Amino acid sequence: KPLNPSFHLWLLSSLERMKVQVPKEDSQEPKREKEMNQKKKEETSNRNEEEEPQVELPTDSDDEVLSEDDDASRESGSGQTESSGDEDIITQSDGEVLSDDDSDHGQEKESESDEAHEGVEESDSSEDEVTPRNTIGEVPLEWYKDEEHIGYDITGKKINKKERQDKLDSFLASADDSKSWRKIYDEYNDEEVELTKHEMKLIRRLLKGKAPHADFDPYAPYVDWFAWDDAKHPLSNAPEPKRRFIPSKWESKKVVEYVRAIRKGLIKFDKPKEEPRLYLLWGDDSSSTEKAGHGLAYIPAPKPKLPGHEESYSPSLEYIPTQEEINSYQLMFEEDRPKYIPKRFTSLRSVPAYEQAVKESFDRCLDLYLCPRARKKRINIDPESLRPKLPSRKDLKPYPTTCYIEYRGHKGAVMSISTEASGQWIASGSSDGTVRIWEVETGRCLRVWEVGEAVQHVAWNPLPELPILAVSSGQDVYLLNTGFGNEEEQEKIKELLHVENPTTPAPDDSGNSTSIVCWVQDDKDKGIRLKHFKSVSSVEWHRKGDYFSTVMPSGESRAILIHQLSKKLTQRTPFKLHGLPVSSAFHPTRSIFFVSTKKNVRVYDLLKQKLVKKLETGVREVSSIAIHPDGDNVIVGSREGKLCWFDMDLSSQPYRILKCHPKDITNVAFHRSYPLFASCSDDCTAYVFHGTVYSDLNQNPLIVPLEILRGHTSANGRGVMDCKFHPRQPWLFTAGADSVIKLYCH
After folding, report:
1. Among 343, 509, 573, 620, which has the highest number of CB atoms less than 10 A from its own CB?
2. Per-residue pLDDT tens over the stretch 238-251
3. If one looks up domain 393-503+515-745 in CATH, what number appears?
4. Nearest to 459 by CA among 502, 398, 396, 416
5. Where is the composition biased (Acidic residues) (predicted)?
6. Confidence (pTM)
7. CA-to-CA distance for 586 and 593, rounded, in angstroms?
């Protein structure tokens, strides 16, 4: 069977580890076995003489007959050639049969021919390797010293340790066993391995410094690998030419060029750094190279305060304190008390020793030893560079800048205004209990309604074909027919504003029969009157014009109601209110409802009836909200003059907080088509901003303040009450507490 080279390496390492001395001669083989082998050889030689004539083999002059010990060693070396174990026969190519007695074991040439005949070939196949029994790999066996096993086999089972014999038993066993010298102990697999005759022969060859296999020729003839025939560039054995021993002219020319370049100053060398021979004896230690060479940022100790005029032995009279001042020092804290009181002496010889000299020196040492020092780098930053780079206001036109028309007629503060969908008309409600409709371009008043109580809010229907005005006054909400539109539209409006049977309020879920809303026909104003159980602060229409919401701040769980105009129905919102509601708004494109309380804004999905997002304002009290036409951005005004911009796709925290008004913000508004939004406040001003929202989600909105609109006067501590943009033009309407409505145009 062919052997693997890894076996040789393992065998050598095992012999080194076990320190086994392999004898060169098999002197312990019993005599009986030797005699039997001798008889077999004689019988073989007699049989050969009878069959064929004896053929003499050429031998060297120093050939000798092998002794019994040599025969035994030869048998151990040729164990691979025994096919049946009875006879060892060497067959030559010419058919002659020779016995082992006729072979010359002493000659290396014959032994090599035996090995060549045996056909021992080196195999690269992994099947020839004997897989180790233990599979722990490179794990040291010392780790299993205290265990009952030495590792695991290929199936994962533990390999238990065998019982070890004592030295006396092992010695007696080795004395009785004739082959004990061939056995070695494999510590890795915990078993004894008996070496075969062929392996012994390999070991002997290795000990003699020869190759393990006899068929390996270390002195094989050299094979010339170079193809000399028809070579284009044949190798030459010519002697070295003379030019290799003569200085090169080309190199000398190059050296001359470099020398001329250095003289002309074209090539400059770095000058060696000269160490300064002089140094400042009392200089700062921060510039010392020794401290900087350690790789650490050396920070010098702060220098003590230098003495001033008051510490002179003859200071000026103004530095010497009076007795009253000295007595006042005793009443001060020790850290505030001056450390040195100036005194005046006639000469320097009369100056006594300083009392605090030792104490101050000790405190100085403590400061240097215990107080950590840190280097603070001053950064010179231009304040102008901290300002955000905003586009020029000229590039952001048009936006409202100047007052164009004033609408006068109300006797009280104008609380709310609303523009019609076409932009031709504007409605206003005042605290004097009247609702007026104005023509935008001319400023004349077309209609006036007397509702009796102060009007809190007015809202025009967003559909152009339904010019219906919703007015909240006290506990009632009026749906008024403005009279605009053609005859077909008026007939449709009259049908919508007709209530055949006044609805009776139904009890709420808790069983309380308190009325929520009662739909009643208003014959006086030819509209509908919705009676609520609490005062209504605001009214907001849905984008389709059929639904509208009302807010009653003191209505508790029924504070926000949604009404349907076509069916004359009222329903509560299916959401639990957290805090007092301030205002509500519908999403411009989706079925999402915004409810603002005093602290935050909650966003609900009306179809799924669940909370979508909660916007944390972080302000003291919310006053109003406005939704961007795209619906993804919200602005919130507060009572403390802060304006918060929320990007709902970004976070529930404000994207920007603008502190622009010194007083309360009363209302905020977005323009429907232009990138503008505005805020009005009790400080009698309205701020106009540019706000661009990009479709790219990676780009934040651009907010730029544009203009401050002034013109209103304060009345009863109130300023501008409401502001609304024109639906088509970049115009802004403002309603003030001075009963004037102003239109600002670009």
Report:
1. 573
2. 888 898 899 999 99
3. 2.130.10.10
4. 416
5. 49-72
6. 0.51
7. 5
